[in-house]
Design the sequence.
C-alpha cells in the first residue's frame, strides 16, 4: 500500500501515520519528493485499512498494491481451479482448466412436462447442466414470481431422468436450505451479487455456486463477492458474466466480453457467460455465445424454450432447441481452436435421451 | 401499448396478435403504414404482457404508453404524498409536500457513547432523524460488519433521549422483525434495491421505508421497486438518490441530481438525497447537498463523525458536526428560495439538547 | 510517479528502470516489499512518460502523483481565475471568483428578427452574454445545419444593440478566423472536446473560450483539453458541464453536478453549467440550473425561444423568456446564499433594453 | 412515427398536429384510447421532424418507426456491402460479405526503417492493410503529435514495397487532401465520430473510410455518422468498434462486442474491431480479437511494435509481430467456423516479403 500525502502535509502527520503503520507490525518506507511525501507500507497489506488512512486530513491518495481479495486471487492459487459438479447418477462434470460447460434450460419452470421436454432437448444438443427458475426475480411485483418448491421438484426429476446436474437461482437467505435439498448448483443472480448475507449462507454449504456479475459490479467488486463465499469454506465458485449497464441500449445490457480474460488474469476461478440475459433478444444470442468461448470462457448459460411466444418470462431471449443445437456445434469448434472441449454427463442407461 | 410489426410480418400474424389482445377484453386498432403495420392497444394496458408480445417472431418493437408502476405513479395519485414519521416522545415529523428533512448520524453505530454524542450534535445542528448502521453491507467479508442488536439498542436510546426518530439499514429478510422493534424507519440500501423478497417484507410492515436507488437502477426500475413495497399495503416510501455508476471516477459515484425533478414528475412520493455516499469524500458533501435541495429534494441524509480518521467505516465521507451545522444553515436558506422548510422534532422537556 | 513492479520482476529490470529514470535527471527511490518492488520517482514527473514505463514487461502499475495538466491546475495557480469578457460598447463582464454569468439565447439563429427579439428578452431577464448558433452540429446530415456567416452578423448586431458580448460554437479549424471576427467568445461543443487541432487554433486567439465537457469526457481529460488551449497562450478558458452519457435515459444526458466542486478543487478555471442540453426537456431546466448554482457553478448557459414548437432545432429544451426571467430570480437568490452575485453589462444609452 | 399525447391534451392540439402532418403530404391515423390519444403517421417518416413534434406542449412521447439513417440501413440495401480497397500494385482486397481483413502496423510511424520493418512483419503474418499514424490525437498537448507528411511518405513507400494498401487517421478538415494523396483508406478516430465537417469532407472523396465508434457513441448515432459520409456520395464506409466508456476500468475501454451483430442487423456496411485500443494492454488483445471474429466481425485492426517498451505512443497495447502471427492463425480458424476467410493481397513479384 502506498500513502501519498498532500503537499501541505505536516511532519507531525507523517510521524503519526508511520507510527500507525508500525503499530500493526509493518514497515513504513518514506520517500520525500520535491512536492510530496510518499509512504510505502511493507508487509501484509491486508492488515491496514485503506479507507481509514484515506479519512485522515492531509492524505491525498492511497494506492493498494495487493488485491483486496485473497482466496479468489491468482496470486494465492496459481493454477486454474477445476470445479466438479455432482451428477444425479453419480460421477461429476468438470468446469475450468480446459473443460467447458453448457448450462441450458427454460428461464422459469412453467410446468412439469415442459421441464422434462426441454431437459431432453438441451441434453441431446450437448448441454451439461439443466437450468430452470423456481423463484424468479421480477422487476414488477405484478409479474409471475415462479412456482417455488413445485418447480424445484420438476427440475430435480428432469435432472435425474437425464443424468444432468440442475441449477436454480436463490434469492433469499430463507430459501437456501430448500434449494440445497433439490439442486446441485446454486445460482446467485446479478441483482444479488452484493447481497452479502446471502453470499455468506451459500458459502456455508458445500455445493458449487454460479455467481453472476451485478449490473453495476466492477470486476474487483465481483471478486470480493466471490471472496464472501470462499471465506466461508466453499471453494466452488463459478463466475458468470451476463452484461452490464452502459449508455448503449440497443440490447438489454452490454456484454463485457473483456471480463473473461481479465478475470482469468486476476483469479483462478472458472468463468462462464450468459448471453441470453445480456442480449435479451434471441437473434443476438449465438453471436455473443461464440464470442464468449472465443474469448476464453469456460462455458455458457443459455435459455431455451419450445415456444418462446408463450413463455411466462423472458420469451424474447429464449432460443429454440434446434437453434441451440446448431450453436453448440459452433461453440465446440471454437473451443477446439483454443484447445478446450465441452464436457457432457454420461447418459443414464435405458434413458430416452442417450445420445 | 403499441405493437410495431416488422415489414415482413404476415397477415396471419396480425390476426393472431389482434385476437390475443381482444381475448383480454381490450381493443386493437390497426394502422397500416407504407412499410409496416402498427397495432394500438386500447384499454387497461397492464393486462397485456409487453414481453410476451416482444417474444413473438415478426414483432419489431413494443412501446408502453402507461407506466408499469401504478401505485407509485403521479397519474394514480396527483398530489405529493406527505409521509409522517413517528417520534419517540409522540407526534410526527413530515416529509414531502414542502417539508424537508435532514437525516444525520454516524455511518456505523460504533459504541454507545458515540451514538449519543453524535445524536446530540446533529440534533443541535437541525437534523430531524438519527441514522446509524447496525448491520453493515461491506464490499469485503473481512471488514467490520456492524454491531447488530447492540447497535440497534444504542440507536433507539439515543433517539429517545433526543426525541428523534431513528433509521437503520435492513439487509436480510430475517432481520426485518428485530429492526422493526427498535427503529422508526427502514432503510433499504442501494445494493438491495432489487432484493424483491426484502421489499415484500418491509412492505408488510407499516413503518416508513427509505428506498435507496441502486447503483445501476434506472428511475423506472427504482419506481418499480417502490411499487413492490406499496403493493403490500405500505404506502410510506421515501426515495433516496445516492449516486449511480458511470465512467467518471473522480468521486465514488455520480450523483444524478436530475433524478429529483424526474421522480417528482413521475411520482407523488418524496425524494431525498444522500450526498455522503455519492461523494465518498467529505470535501464535496456540502456542494452536493446544496444542489440536491436546490433541485427540489425533500431532504438529505448525511453521515457525520466526531473523528473521521478513527471511523470504523466510511470515514473519508463523514462531516464533522460543526461543518454539518454550517451546511444546515445554507440548506435552510436554499429551501426558503423554493418556498419550503426543514422540519424538526420538538425537543424533549429537560433534555440537554433543547435548542 | 510510482512504478509498481510485478512480483516476478527481475533485478535487471529494476536496474534498467532506475537507470532510465536517472538518465532524465530524476531520482529513483527503491522500496522492496515482501511481495513486490516499488520505485518512486522524485523530481519533475512531467519528464517521465508513464505510458512508456507501463509498456515495459514486468511493470504492473504506474501511479501518477502529479496531475498531467499544469497550467489548468490549482497547484500551479492557487487563486480562482477571473475572466473578463469584452462588451460591444466597451468595458468587460467578469466570470469566476464570486462573479456568476448567465449566457442565454436561441439554439440556432433562425432569422435576424428572432435574434434581436430574444436578445432583448434575455437581457431584460438578466442574461449577461448572448448565445446563438451559426454552424450547428447535428446528428443527422439531413437536419438544418445553421445559417453560417449570416447568423454571425445577426448575432453581432443583436449583441451591439444590447451591449451584450456574444458567443457561438466553432466546429471546424477553417471557421476560427471568421467566427473570431464577429463574436466575443468561442464555444467548443461537447463533440469537439477532443478535437485537438481545433483546441490549438482557438488557443492561438486571445478571446475567451467556453469549453464544454464531452459526453464521455472524464474530468481529467477535460482539463487536459483546457490545457491544449492554455498551452497556446490563451489563458481565458471557461469550462462548461453539460451532461454525460450514462445508463439513465429519462433525460437526454445525466448532468454531473459533482463536476462543479471537483473542477473547483483541481483547477482555478471558472466552470458554468448548461442545463438545457443536459435535460433536453424544458420542464427540467430550472431544477438543474438551480442545482448548478447551489453546487458552486460560476454561471449557466440556457436556451430560450419565443415559440419552442416552431424552433429549427432543440425546441423541446428551450425555455420561454418569461420562464427564464423567473428562473433568474431564483438563481440570484441561491447565488446570494453562497455569497456570489450575477453580473450584467451596463445598458447602452438610448437602447430600448435599458432595465 | 407515432405521436403519443398527454392525457390532458386538448382536441385543438390533436387537430393542429394532424394538420401539420397532412400539410407534409402524409396521413395521420388517430387512435383514441381510454387515457390518451395516439397519432400514427403514415408515409415517409423522414419528412417529419420528431424533435419539432416533441417540442409542442401536450406531446408526451414521439416514437420513430423508421430508422433516421437511410443509406446506411439494411432496409435500404438488403445485401452486405463488399468494399474493395485498391492495392498499390493494382487489384483490390475485399472487406465484407464473407471476406475478413486484418489491418496492422504501428500506432505511430516513428521513423522510416521501423515502418518498413513492421510492414514486412505484419504482411508475413497475414495482415492485409498497413496502418500507421502520421497525425496523432493525444490527450496531452505535451505528448508526441506525429511526424505529419514525412510519416505519410514512409507509410506509402512501405505499402508499395509490400503491395499493401495503407490507412492513416485524419483529424482535421485541412488535412484531407494531403492524406488522400498518400493513402488508400481514411481513418476517422473515435474522438471525431461526430466531427461532422470532417465526415462531410471525407464523404466528398472516393476512398474507403474506416469510421471508428465514439467512446460515447450509441450505435444509432454511429450509423448517423456513417450517413454523413454516405450522403456525400462515398459509399465505402467500414465501421470499427473500439470500445466504449463504462464504469468498468480494468481495461482502458469496454469492448462492446454486441455491436457487431447489432450493426449487422441494422446495416449492410462491414464492421471490424480494434481490440488494441479497447484493451490498452497487449495481454488482452488476442482474447478480444478472437471474440470479435467469433461474433461475426469482418476484420480486426491491431497495433504491433517490435519493441513496445520504446514505442512513442500506446506501447502498452502493441503486440510483438510473433504474437500477432500466432493470433492470425487462431482468427483464421475461427473465421472458418463461420464460413468466412481472411483475404490477403498478392505479393509483389521480386518483393522481399513474398510468403
Sequence:
Amino acid at each position: 500500500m502506498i500513502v501519498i500525502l498532500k503537499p501541505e502535509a505536516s511532519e507531525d502527520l507523517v510521524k503519526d501515520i508511520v507510527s500507525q503503520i508500525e503499530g500493526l507490525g509493518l514497515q513504513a518506507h518514506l520517500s520525500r519528493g520535491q512536492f510530496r511525501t510518499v509512504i510505502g507500507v511493507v508487509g501484509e497489506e491486508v492488515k491496514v485499512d485503506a479507507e481509514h488512512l484515506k479519512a485522515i486530513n492531509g492524505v491525498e491518495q492511497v494506492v493498494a498494491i495487493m488485491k483486496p481479495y485473497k482466496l479468489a486471487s491468482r496470486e494465492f492459487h496459481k493454477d486454474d481451479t477445476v470445479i466438479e459438479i455432482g451428477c444425479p447418477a453419480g460421477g461429476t462434470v468438470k468446469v475450468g482448466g480446459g473443460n467447458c460447460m453448457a448450462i441450458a434450460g427454460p428461464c422459469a419452470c412453467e410446468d412439469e412436462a415442459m421441464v422434462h421436454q426441454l431437459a431432453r432437448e438441451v441434453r441431446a444438443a450437448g448441454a451439461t447442466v439443466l437450468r430452470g427458475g423456481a423463484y424468479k426475480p421480477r422487476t414488477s411485483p405484478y409479474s409471475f414470481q415462479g412456482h417455488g418448491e413445485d418447480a424445484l421438484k420438476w427440475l430435480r426429476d428432469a435432472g435425474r431422468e437425464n443424468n444432468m446436474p440442475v441449477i436454480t437461482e436463490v434469492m433469499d437467505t430463507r430459501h437456501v436450505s430448500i434449494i440445497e435439498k433439490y439442486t446441485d448448483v446454486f445460482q446467485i443472480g446479478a441483482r444479488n451479487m452484493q447481497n452479502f448475507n446471502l453470499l455468506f449462507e451459500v458459502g456455508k454449504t458445500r455445493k458449487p455456486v454460479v455467481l453472476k456479475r451485478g449490473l453495476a459490479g466492477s470486476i474487483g467488486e465481483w471478486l470480493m463477492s466471490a471472496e464472501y463465499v470462499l471465506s466461508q469454506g466453499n471453494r466452488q465458485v463459478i463466475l458468470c458474466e451476463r452484461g452490464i449497464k452502459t449508455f448503449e441500449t440497443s440490447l438489454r445490457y452490454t456484454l463485457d466480453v473483456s471480463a473473461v480474460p481479465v478475470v482469468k488474469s486476476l483469479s483462478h476461478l472458472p468463468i462462464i457467460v450468459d448471453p441470453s440475459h445480456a442480449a435479451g433478444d434471441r437473434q443476438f444470442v449465438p453471436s455473443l455465445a461464440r464470442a464468449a468461448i472465443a474469448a476464453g470462457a469456460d462455458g455458457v448459460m443459455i435459455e431455451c424454450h419450445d415456444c418462446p411466444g408463450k413463455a411466462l418470462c423472458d420469451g424474447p431471449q429464449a432460443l429454440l432447441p434446434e437453434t441451440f443445437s446448431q450453436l453448440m456445434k459452433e461453440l465446440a469448434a471454437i473451443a477446439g481452436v483454443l484447445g478446450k472441449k465441452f464436457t457432457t454427463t454420461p447418459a443414464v442407461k435405458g434413458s430416452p435421451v442417450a445420445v
